[in-house]
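Progress narrative, work stream C.
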Amino acid sequence: MNRRVLVITSDFVGSRMAGPAVRAVNLAREIAHRGLDVTLATPNEVDTPMAEVGWTRLNAHDSRGAVALAQTHDVVIAQWLPPTAMVALARSGKRVIYDLYDPVPHELIASVRERPRHHRDELQLKRNQLTVEIALLTGDAFVCASERQRDLWLGALGALGRLNHEEHSRDPSFRHLIDVVPFGIDVAPPRVENPVLRGVLPGVDERSRVLVWAGGIWDWLDPLTVIRAVYELSQTRDDIRLAFMGLRRPNIGVAETTMAERAVALARELGLYDRCVFFNAEWVPHDQRGGWLAEADIGVSAHFDTLETRFAVRTRVLDYLWAGLPIVTTGGDVLGELVEKERLGASLPAEDVAAWVAALQGLLDNERSGGEARQRVAAVGERFEWPRVVESLVRLIDEPGRPVDLPRRARLAGVHDLYLAGRISLMRRGAAGTLTEALKRRASRPARLT
């Protein structure tokens, strides 16, 4: 009998998807291709169901629902779950694999760089750190997206006592406990149906040299340096164009980021808005992103020199590999190092406008250099195709689950999480609103697995 695998994501899945949803969908699909019975649980109604993968709806904060759904499966793969659900699953002996590819606490720390910090930010960070800690204490196994991330999580697992003699005797490399599943790319090349940039946006034509920024403009990213570099280039050439593929995350209720607002304001201030710099207000549908990439000359991504950068995997940069685009990016992360090592374009110091101007000018004006970079990008991209990167996850699925010996702090996680959630809710909704929300969630108290 095939093992029944449940993949849970808290991100919106459908025609428009951000990185966590893209990863969950592709992992589910590739696991199903190995002959396993796979169900994908999402917080929303899916408008583009997959024939090979079952689908069900699950509120990301519904502990009881997550536990009940797990009862009908052999293996659970999740990016995160409510702490009470994680504890219940650990007691059950169900095999649970947590996907740690996105170190969210680092993003939360970096997210207040562009705005005043509030006490609610500290509470939200503590709550997220608690969620990660309970996952590390209760999970059977873990995956992440790079060897650098694996070092991070091995250190955390060691600090929590998960690296012990018993685990060493099973596998001294500890690959049975945590292994790398890189963020992947599609095997099929980008599909182009209709023009989306050239001849569509004002002033973008066949002679334009187009830079594309794939994905969102999060507060820990640095679109400002790229916009300033485009301004400098525009003083001596009239063909430079920069297109941002999406301002708003596809999740309903997620507001535009402070950095997105600053990027638009800077483009207006420099006289570039809708002339040399273009912002797509909505998220580009996932199956249409290939058109944007195919019409571009260079893929760009920039960030600051922060802790978030060191352990990040810029998932949309991998789309540049998929499309065979030369890449210009800030260094400091694993993909920046890949760009530099494999000579895929340029990896630059943080916030260095002059370096960006020189790198872009060099790639745009030297056809041989740009062509050679494209060839190398195409070759490197093959390493990241989804069927290749998923192999270590399939191996981890095949191992049996077992009850975890829970330390006291894991058993008390639910109480601590409710306390933090209550304080955050009081700040957001006030006492009356918090009471109303608590009554709504009362029926969602976690059930125990038998």
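Work stream C, second folded protein:
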Amino acid sequence: MSELPAPAPPVNIETEPFWAATAEGRLLLLRCDDCGAVIWYPRSICPNCRSSTTSWFEASGRGIVYSYTVVRRGQGRWREAAPYVVAYVELEEGPRLLTNIVDCDPDEVRIDMAVRVRFDPTGEGPALPRFVPDPSAH
């Protein structure tokens, strides 16, 4: 687990399967059964074609850093965690998740850096998907 705060996320009927899977260490995504789009953030209607026919599938958990920033002066409970990295990670399956890069020096993070998911428990069921460097990636 990282030194970052891990607040429990809000869970609703559309996001419950996603958050339940995080507690098991699995990253689930939705795919539209009609147009094939991979959907992020979980919702009942495909933002691409407006279909309501979607299916959950287990994602690889691998991706690359698409964009990032290093927060050097956090606020509130994040103050003690600074510096930390806030990043968009582009998953192999296509979607980009807003997350943190952990377990590495913030100054070592780079665009296109290979990362893999790691789940930080919140203490209240769901875990937060955060990403760590993946040296095994090509």
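The beta strands are 28-32, 38-39, 54-58, 62-71, 84-91, 96-101, 114-121, 127-133. No further action is required on this item.
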